[in-house]
């Protein structure tokens, strides 16, 4: 019986290694975009990806035809969302650093990874219209810089006149 388990375990490890070899670079890029770290110095993204891959490996036998990339991306996004307060502002240098964690997550899912709005909405537990609004706001922020807070015009003062 132990020989049968060792053959199955080796096959499982080989399948997972092949998956990681093909998908790790793209998944690391997704994690790096989420954490808003620069691509050359991304320890948070690497840690996020490692934990997501560990979960995928633990569930490998239960995937049964499910795309391991989708499963890993979902785990990556879920782990990021649960710990997003730690990633509100990255260490600087990341292309998406000016966005909020929610905006980064939605933008990466929809624009970079091509997830449908409805699928992202179901995953995030919010209406598709909200996903669309967050994506629009994020794209606008990337095009034009951070939005001006409501009630303020660029160059206006916060203090009330005496």
- Fourth-level CATH superfamily: PhyR, sigma-like (SL) domain
Distance between the termini: 85 Å
Radius of gyration: 20 Å
By CATH, the architecture is named Up-down Bundle
Reported for the largest beta sheet, the result is: none
The CATH class label is Mainly Alpha
CATH fold label: Butyryl-CoA Dehydrogenase, subunit A, domain 3
Count of folded domains: 1
What's the assembly state of these chains? Answer: single chain
Low-confidence stretches: 147-162
Q: What is the overall shape?
A: elongated
Task: Describe it.
The chain has one domain: Butyryl-CoA Dehydrogenase, subunit A, domain 3. 63% of the residues lie in helices and 0% in strands. The protein contains 6 helices and no strands. Helix 2 crosses helix 3, helix 4 packs across helix 6 and helix 5 crosses helix 6. The longest helix has 34 residues. With 162 residues, it is an all-alpha fold.
């Amino acid at each position: 019986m132990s020989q049968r388990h060792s053959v199955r375990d080796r096959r499982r490890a080989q399948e997972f290694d092949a998956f990681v070899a093909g998908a790790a670079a793209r998944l690391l890029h997704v994690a790096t975009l989420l954490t808003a770290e620069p691509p050359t110095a991304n320890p948070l993204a690497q840690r996020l990806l490692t934990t997501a891959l560990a979960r995928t490996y633990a569930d490998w036998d239960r995937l049964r035809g499910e795309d391991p990339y989708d499963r890993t991306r979902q785990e990556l996004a879920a782990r990021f969302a649960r710990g997003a307060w730690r990633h509100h502002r990255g260490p600087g240098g990341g292309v998406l650093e000016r966005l909020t964690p929610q905006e980064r997550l939605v933008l990466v899912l929809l624009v970079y990874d091509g997830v449908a709005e409805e699928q992202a909405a179901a995953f995030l537990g919010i209406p598709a219209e909200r996903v669309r609004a967050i994506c629009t706001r994020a794209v606008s922020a990337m095009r034009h810089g951070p939005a001006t807070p409501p009630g303020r015009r660029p160059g206006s003062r916060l203090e009330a006149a005496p």
